[in-house]
Specification:
The protein is of the alpha+beta class. The chain has five helices and 17 strands. It has two domains: 114 residues, Glutaredoxin; 144 residues, Thiol:disulfide interchange protein DsbD, N-terminal domain (Immunoglobulin-like). It is elongated and about 70 Å long. It starts with a helix and ends with a helix. 23% of the residues are buried.
């Protein structure tokens, strides 16, 4: 449910690029209508009673059984998004094995449009060194439970300067970005942009380098260690510590390798809880309280 609201946030940008958005679930039309009205969803929510379409696509979550224990969740698909062309041919897809994990709306938008949008309003930190500007920021407005967000490290290089990409010869430093481990945050592997070939004629060597604006993204996901479905969250923000290592050069000289450490506080948002789940959670809490 949270991802449906996330996608609504980027709907205008997707529509401006010619995309149409639909969501399908095993919920009833009434449930979907109420949800859309409550959260301002403007795209189509399709009701697949009995999960017939879900089964035909082969994405029924087979990890959940229809017995008493799994009855509440049986019928849901593996969470994912299909992207098709004008003829209905699938050209891209985003899928997760765990039924609770979803990509953020911004992650889907950036992947589809092939560029990282940044309006400058999200949580961030900035610094400068050797005429190189570095910004680390959260792509989304906040972190939400099991929504895959992205922390970007943006390096703005002046004209004529480059930094190195893997692999590099011995004695040179490749660009690396890491996020320090923190409780409640699942950190993925950094995604580096394509590099370009550069020949340093004075050394007779060829390197892989980055130039211009370099965006390096690291997926981060808030886990149930800090936020549980239907319960108040433990924290309002998480400190994100980013470590950047690079070596900058131009056609005539190389600067000393540099390590920069930056930190910003990423807001933690509320998870969108379906009404039925909230009722179930309240019953469990009341039962637990009575037992105590």
């Amino acid at each position: 449910m949270t991802q449906l609201v996330e996608l609504q946030r980027v709907l205008p940008e997707l529509e401006a690029e010619g995309y149409c958005l639909y969501a399908i679930s095993y919920d009833t039309q009434e449930q979907l209508r109420n949800f859309a009205e409550k959260h301002g969803i403007r795209y189509s929510l399709l009701s697949d009673i009995g999960s017939e379409v879900i089964k035909r696509y082969g994405i029924l979550n087979s990890l959940i059984s229809p017995d008493e224990k799994g009855r509440r969740w049986y019928g849901i698909p593996f969470p994912g998004t299909y992207v098709t062309d004008e003829k209905g041919v699938v050209v891209r897809k985003f899928f997760n094995q765990h039924h609770a994990v979803r990509e953020s709306g911004e992650t889907v938008r950036d992947q589809l449009l092939g560029r990282v949008a940044d309006d400058g309003t999200s949580a961030r930190a900035t610094t400068s060194a050797d005429d190189i500007d570095v910004t680390v920021f959260l792509r989304e407005p906040d972190l939400k439970l099991e929504i895959v967000s992205t922390v970007y490290c943006r390096i703005a290089l002046p004209e004529g300067m480059h930094i190195y990409a893997e692999p590099v010869p011995e004695g040179f430093i490749a660009t690396r970005v890491e996020i320090a481990p923190i409780r409640g945050l699942r950190i993925g592997s950094a995604s580096y942009p394509p590099s370009e070939s550069y020949e340093m004629t004075s050394l007779g060597m060829r390197f892989n380098v980055y130039t211009g604006i370099v965006n390096i993204g690291i997926p981060v996901t808030l886990t149930s260690e800090l936020v549980r479905l239907g319960h108040p969250r433990e924290v309002d923000s998480l400190p994100i510590e980013v470590r950047l290592e690079y070596q900058a050069c131009d056609d005539t000289m190389c600067l000393q390798p540099k390590t920069i450490q930056m930190r910003f506080d990423a807001p933690v948002g509320d998870v969108i809880v379906p009404d039925g789940i909230q009722v179930y959670v309240e019953r469990v809490l009341n039962r637990t309280g009575n037992n105590e």
